[in-house]
Amino acid sequence: MITFYFDKSKDIPLYEQLYTYLKKSIEKNELHPQEKLPSKRKLAQHLKISQTTVETAYMQLLAEGYIKSVPRVGYFVLDNLNFPKKRKNKIKQKIIAKSKNKFKFDFKTNMVDAKNFPYQKFAKIKREIILDKLERNINEIDFFGLFSLREKIADILFAYRGIEAIPEQIVVGSGSEHLISLLVILLGRDNSFLTEDPAYIKNYLLYKEYGAKVSACGLDEKGISMDGLKKSQANIVHITPSHQFPSGIITPVSRRIELLNWANEENNRFIIEDDYDSEFRFSGNPIPALKVLDEYDKVIYMNSFSKSLSPSFRVSFMVLPRKLVKRYRESFSYFSCSVPITTQLSLERFIANNEFEKHLNRMKNIYKTKRDVLIEELEKAFGSNIEILGYDAGLHFLVRFKTDFSENLLIELAKIKLVRVYGLNEFFINKNRYKDEPVLVFGYSHLELDELKEAVKLLKFAWSEINR
Amino acid sequence: MITFYFDKSKDIPLYEQLYTYLKKSIEKNELHPQEKLPSKRKLAQHLKISQTTVETAYMQLLAEGYIKSVPRVGYFVLDNLNFPKKRKNKIKQKIIAKSKNKFKFDFKTNMVDAKNFPYQKFAKIKREIILDKLERNINEIDFFGLFSLREKIADILFAYRGIEAIPEQIVVGSGSEHLISLLVILLGRDNSFLTEDPAYIKNYLLYKEYGAKVSACGLDEKGISMDGLKKSQANIVHITPSHQFPSGIITPVSRRIELLNWANEENNRFIIEDDYDSEFRFSGNPIPALKVLDEYDKVIYMNSFSKSLSPSFRVSFMVLPRKLVKRYRESFSYFSCSVPITTQLSLERFIANNEFEKHLNRMKNIYKTKRDVLIEELEKAFGSNIEILGYDAGLHFLVRFKTDFSENLLIELAKIKLVRVYGLNEFFINKNRYKDEPVLVFGYSHLELDELKEAVKLLKFAWSEINR
After folding, report:
1. Quick one: which of A138, A408, B106, B336 has the fewest CB in 10 Å?
2. Which of these, A300, A293, A237, lies nearest to B81 by C-alpha position?
């Protein structure tokens, strides 16, 4: 007869203690295959517990397949339960965590200012929409995204970028990871994609990881090289015409026309316009989107709220050409929009309340000040040894150094002072860059004014020898 | 000389009006290629505006590449600007929106109760974390997910599922779309995946769309067929052992051991345990996860908060075997976690405050009542013509009908009464189901008690003839 002592001090029901004991006994082969378990009545008497307690434990073992029931005979331990042997070395191996950023200042791109986000207003909106709207939307996972948010995005696109899009063309997704995975499926893995080089390398890698054919094409002074594009045999090109990343080149209207004409030559050609960062041009108007000229319906426009709000909000969107909308609807109806409904609802209200516009205008001034201070400090520190490039748009700019030092040496010297700067070479996909003077890419959006000054001070120490 | 009238009533700066006028004139070929623009001074005099206004307009045209500057000579319209012709039929074609659900009641699965979500508490938590924590995390996009949330998920896994996982093994992502796309990349598209049949077909389609080789394997009374699995040549199997979807089969421990041994035979074999819905077993304890027995480190465990909180929150997670953690870290370091930081932070606090546990316990009772009422109503209406299957777990169950009517006929008759019911056949990937009596799958979680009663009343009308 099974003997077993209940631990009444524990907060675990008796049936569960009995169940666990029996299960372990079976796993350890103390109760043998085919062994008959005592009847419920007998075991209950023996253990001085109720028959229901025994029954509940037996039912659980039965449901999990540890025992079987033979009607009118009783319960038997199952055969052939050869459990995997416990690993002897099953210690909790420490899996080394990602090493923390050890730099004092890091000029990385794709960050936002953390101090000047309207936290109070955003918290208020979140609270409101959860109380007002979430109940109606708690099962809402439309694979295009929330319609009312797409209406607001259409408004923004018209107001800021001159693009006339209807909400039915707009797809909301969480970041370029998601949108690019959708595009690879929508357009087909058999297409041949082309990205710029240098570029935001992540996009290139995403195409590759998602199983598409992808290559990279060099730039000329107008953006992606038309010769390179034509030689590549690619039929889908992913470009950043408003502000090439990272070079800052603005693709002029003549090249835009060339690109559109190229796309119009074949049915399966498309242009993916990655309009990142276009919100932040500091002088004059923003450069209009290529999509504005898209009379042939060949441009897939893509943007995100990563710069205008925060990269950690993970809200991106794209405008599909009308001919792709139907295909998207047919292929993706079983997908769910990857952005949480609370995020979509609160973003919708943030835009509707004009908070988005206010925030953008405010940040434009803040970022312009940061940029001006950083450029001033760099010019004070390095004078005629540097030249600033692409400073008019976006939350980064380039600095060309007139020195014999290599790009890598500049980076390594800065690291010693705990400042991380990035070489233009780090943005190249094909390592074939023409060896010119070193160029560094400075992202400054997340650093405070005093941090910018302090960082340049450290760089001045680091690079004190460059002027020889 | 350019003649142009400013509209001073409009809220558009003069330079922008001038810029737009000049740009349109170039696009319409009214200003010809190579034509010299008037000097800034002359045009300013002529239009009675400041020279700065003219200069700003010219600078914008220059930046966009409509004109070029020849030093000490002036500005010229660029050559070869052959703009795409405006499409004549560029009407705003109405793209037909997805037809709205026209049913009065829809017994679909994968929904939650909208009425009993703790909106007040959730709103409070959201507000708090935005004010307390967002500033520190606004640029946080760790590709594993927020560490502190992963710690909480590890706690839940241990408490509810008996799984001992460390946060370093856990990856957070937005829904099965995202996790499956990661797995296809992590494991490699050259692997051969296998899903159950019948199944949650979406997962099968996702593997396929993401470019993996995938097939589907029938079930026996213990879950996925071992014979089918072995014949399939697949090396990665995606299963729902705790509660097979949609059949409700609980895979017994003997089959679990067989599966683990199968996985252990080859280095590249893995089991993806999809533990959806395991929270909601209504009698006894939850069925333990297969992962608990995973001594060989071969099980990728996957679950989501779609049922326990809401499908529209888009939070899923997986536990990687230790050997895959390193590979994930190396391959995905440039990815960003697809779940917004506010969602991650608020979920972390929701769990930490015990709100998650409270909500689960509360919903378990609510769902149990709904299930009991629905079963009672169905049995009252159809008596011995039906048999309820798999009613003990999850937010759906199966109803087998003893009738000559086909499954499709039952579905169509219900549609006439504006009730959507789902046939088991709709969950089959290979259309080879043994033609047995009709079986319908009832998801009931989103319907209120009076709706359930009303819906069954309509079904009784719809199916009044089944008993002949």
Report:
1. A408
2. A293
Chain A residue closest to B326 (CA)? A95
Contacts of B189 in chain A (CB under 8 A): 211
Q: Do B131 and A138 touch (CB under 8 A)?
A: no
Instruction: Record the tokens describing residue A120, joined without a space.
Output: 């109070």
Task: Give the C-alpha distances (Å, rounded to integers) separating B24 from A164, B31, B76.
Answer: 17, 9, 15
Q: Given this model, what pLDDT does residue A196 score?
A: 97
Which CATH code for domain A119-354?
3.40.640.10
Please say whether the dihedral angle defined by the alpha carbons of residues A361, A365, A370 and A372, taken in this order, is positive or negative: positive
Inter-chain contact B16–A285, Cβ cutoff 8 Å?
A: yes
Q: Which residue stretches of A237-302 are H helix?
A: 253-264
How close does chain B come to A81, measured CA to CA in Å? 6
For domain B105-111+358-467, is the CATH number 3.90.1150.10?
yes
- CA torsion angle A252 A255 A260 A261 (round to 10): 150
B138 → closest Cβ in A117, A130, A252: A117
Which of B115, B174, B257 is nearest residue A174 as measured by Cβ atoms? Answer: B174
The answer to whether the CB of B321 falls within 8 A of the CB of B299 is yes
Q: Which chain A residues contact residue B260 at CB under 8 A?
A: 84
Give B288's contacts in chain A (Cβ within 8 Å): 64
The DSSP bridge partners found for residue B270 are B236
pTM over cut 0.80: yes
Are B262 and B411 in contact by the 8 Å Cβ rule? The answer is: no
* DSSP-based three-state secondary structure for A216: strand
H/E stretch holding B258 = helix B253-264
Instruction: Note the pLDDT tens digit of each residue in B234-286.
Output: 999 999 999 999 999 999 999 999 999 999 999 999 999 999 888 888 877 78
Going from N- to C-terminal start, the domains of chain B cover: 14-77, 105-111+358-467, 119-354
Tokens of B286: 């939850």
Residue by residue, pLDDT tens for chain B (468 residues) are 777 788 877 788 888 899 999 998 998 888 888 899 999 999 999 988 999 999 999 999 998 999 999 999 999 998 878 887 766 544 455 555 555 568 999 999 989 999 999 999 999 999 999 999 999 999 988 999 999 999 999 999 998 898 999 999 999 999 988 999 999 999 999 999 999 999 999 999 999 999 999 999 999 999 999 999 999 999 999 999 999 999 999 999 999 999 999 999 999 999 999 998 888 888 777 888 999 999 999 999 999 999 999 999 999 999 999 999 999 999 888 889 999 999 999 999 999 999 999 999 999 999 999 999 999 999 999 999 999 998 877 899 999 999 999 999 999 999 999 999 999 999 999 876 666 789 999 999 999 999 999 999 999 999 998 865
Q: Are A270 and A235 in contact (CB under 8 A)?
A: yes
Give me the interface pTM, i.e. the ipTM: 0.91
